[in-house]
Amino acid sequence: MEAASSITPLVAALWVLNVVLDTGGQLAFKAAAGDKNAGDGLARWKHMAARPWLWLGIGSYVIEFLVWIAFLSLVPLSDGVLLGSINIVAIMVAGRFLFGEKLTRLRVAGILLVTLGVAIVGVAG
């Protein structure tokens, strides 16, 4: 299957939805895990379980799983996995803006290389 013919509006929508759900899930998990009031050990898990962030992350992952399966049913696995790599970029950039995480020069270079690779796969297959 040629990449140009496989990137239909449905495939593009599923891809974007996958990126949004994966990024949202990761951010929700980070918010749940990074709560300074959570304590340690079992108390930490109880605290996280009582907060919406953990459940939002789990819900995002359940929906993302279904979207991912739908996406993979429409594109070759090799293209799908490579296109899915953009999730790493979205998560790193969102982590920078929402949690103040550091983006070193090497991480930015990695982001640019992953983005370039995804663009090549998306355009050329």
Considering the chains and any ligands shown, give keywords for the structure.
125 residues; mainly alpha; 0% strand
Structure description:
The chain is 81% helix and 0% strand. It has one domain. It contains 7 helices and no strands. The chain is an all-alpha fold and 125 residues long. Helix 2 packs antiparallel against helix 4 and helix 6 runs antiparallel to helix 7.
Number of strands: 0
List low-pLDDT spans: none
Instruction: Report mean pLDDT, rounded to a whole number.
Output: 89
Number of helices: 7
* Beta-strand fraction estimate: under 5%
- Any idea what the shape is? flat
Provide the helix percentage: over 70%
Distance between the termini: 9 Å
**Largest sheet, if any?**
none
Helix/strand order, N-terminal first: HHHHHHH
Q: Which class do the helix and strand fractions yield?
A: mainly alpha
Count of individual domains: 1
Rg over CA atoms: 17 Å
Condensed summary:
The chain contains seven helices and no strands. With 125 residues, it is mostly helical.
Task: Give the SSE map.
Blueprint: H1 3-6, H2 9-33, H3 41-49, H4 52-72, H5 77-84, H6 86-99, H7 105-124
